[in-house]
Amino acid sequence: MSKTNHEKLWLVDHKRIVTMNHFGSENSSASDIPKYNTNHTRIAFPPPLYGKELQVTGPGFGSPITPEELARSLREASDPLWELIRREAEIGARNEPHLASTLFAIILNHRSLEDALSFHLASKLESGYFQATQWMELLREAMSDSEAYRSAIRKDLMAVTTRDPATQHAVQALLFSKGFHALECYRLANWLWERGRRPLALYLQSLVSKSFAVDIHPAAKIGSGVFIDHATGVVIGETATVGNHVSMLHNVTLGGTGKETGDRHPKIHDGVLLGAGATVLGNIVVGRGAYVSACSVVLKPVEPFMVVSGVPAKVIGVLTYQQGVFPSFEMDQRVSVCGMFMKPILSDSNEEKDESFMDYGAHI
């Protein structure tokens, strides 16, 4: 079979999966997808939304695209983020043939972001006692049932892409970010927990802890647009809450203070940045837009936009970002941000607060 502009033959991996690329074919439709036959497996790319073939614009997954460019260039797409991920995967398959079968199986052989993510997570959770197909069924059921789950997936993906300087492509976050994987598995566990299926939720928690080294109790409450960077060693307790747009790094602990029961874990409000190794203990509030520096131990409530550091943590400054900007967006973990972004605290006196340092993220 000769190669044309609309059809390329890929021979990939030891299974010799033959894949037909229908990108760019204006007449392609679901009925054009080749069926399984006795000789080999044929997997067709789903046709692009507008019958246009994306040009290879760089190595790897292609030239990075900003959220603004995404909204502008794919504004007519029903799911712009999924369309971008598909296009990045297509470029990646062309640039790195050894990854082609992986990209086909995880992304290009699926019709939606939910289906692709369900397949990917299920393959990571599979064990001798619980098959991948069972996890896929549960994930798809939960995503279909919960609009909040579907929305959170996209916001979490964009959080990784926009806040992690090492992640320049949405497809990269979907494939490789174990913080994102652990967070979306938690969302399934929470869905199960709230429906009374608690043994299965706890079993999933144990698998996530084993697979990703992240331990999040299914009963915890976590908002959307959350970024867990590196993720290893993160622990979030049963009665903890994490707001929207929060960023945290590895070895963060949101724990209790002992053997007490009831509501005993921290409440992390919107836009908070928790540095690597930060520990917050007890039923205390870390206010909107606060920053807890690396390896600090927080035992008392933290006011909005305060910077705390040390063991035990003490207030060392007040963040002064522009309105609508959170420290979780900027990901600047230096306590030296006191230049244009922090007002140093010189004493513990009850002096009148400067209005320019008030809660600038209130409208988010």
Automatic annotation (TrEMBL):
The keyword Flavoprotein does not apply. GO terms for molecular function: serine O-acetyltransferase activity. It is an enzyme of class 2 (transferase). Its EC number is 2.3.1.30. Pfam families: Hexapep, SATase_N. Keywords: Acyltransferase, Amino-acid biosynthesis, Transferase. InterPro entries: Hexapep, LbH_SAT, Ser_AcTrfase_N, Ser_AcTrfase_N_sf, Ser_O-AcTrfase, Serine_acetyltransferase, Trimer_LpxA-like_sf. It comes from the Eukaryota. Belongs to the transferase hexapeptide repeat family. This is serine O-acetyltransferase. It comes from Galdieria yellowstonensis. The lineage of its organism: Eukaryota, Rhodophyta, Bangiophyceae, Galdieriales, Galdieriaceae.
